[in-house]
Amino acid sequence: MWNKFKAVLNIAQNKNSGSPIHKGLIPAVKFTAKEISTSGDIEIEVHNINVDQRISEDIEIPFFKIITKLLESISKQSKIDEIIIRFVEKENHLHVFIESKTQGKQDENELLPENELTELKNQVESINGNITFEPATENGITLDLNISL
């Protein structure tokens, strides 16, 4: 499955090298979400709210891998019905909000096993990013992955 994602990301990068995020990273995440959705019983939506800046390839590839890993891990949970991903540009930062919809409240320790959570935080920090977890207003949890543009 990873090979398919990598191929789509490579096509987007080759076609749009140094392209705006909405022409490379976001289409690759949409493809990934579609592949995960069709292989399981989970609905994944991807929305570009206002992103049009460019992202360096040194950040784009690891960031895509982080998002992919998160989607794969989250989608394996049986109590998650839906995932909504929103790309938002705010104050020269790219925020990727990943919201899981579940049958009840959820915290970061329920979302991912501790070793995966630690690895995820380390990967985000390695590209000078930040990750925060916020309980959803209803059921589930929201992750905010953000990096400087």
Characterization of the model:
The protein is an alpha+beta fold and 149 residues long. It is 44% helix and 28% strand. The longest helix has 19 residues, at 57-75. The protein is built from five helices and five strands; from the N terminus they run ααβαββααββ. It has a five-stranded mixed beta sheet with strand order 1-2-3-5-4, covered by helices on one side.
Largest sheet: 5 strands, mixed
- Which outline best applies? globular
The class by helix and strand makeup works out as: alpha+beta
**Low-confidence residue ranges:** none
Order of strands across the widest beta sheet?
A: 1-2-3-5-4
The span between the termini is 29 Å
Short structural description:
With 149 residues, the protein is α+β, with helices and mostly antiparallel strands. It has helices at 2-15, 25-39, 57-75, 108-111, 114-126; strands at residues 43-48, 80-90, 93-102, 130-135, 141-148. The protein has a five-stranded mixed beta sheet, covered by helices on one side.
Structural descriptors:
5 helices; alpha+beta; 28% strand; 149 residues; 44% helix; 5 strands
Would you spell out the secondary-structure blueprint of this structure?
Layout: H1 2-15, H2 25-39, E1 43-48, H3 57-75, E2 80-90, E3 93-102, H4 108-111, H5 114-126, E4 130-135, E5 141-148
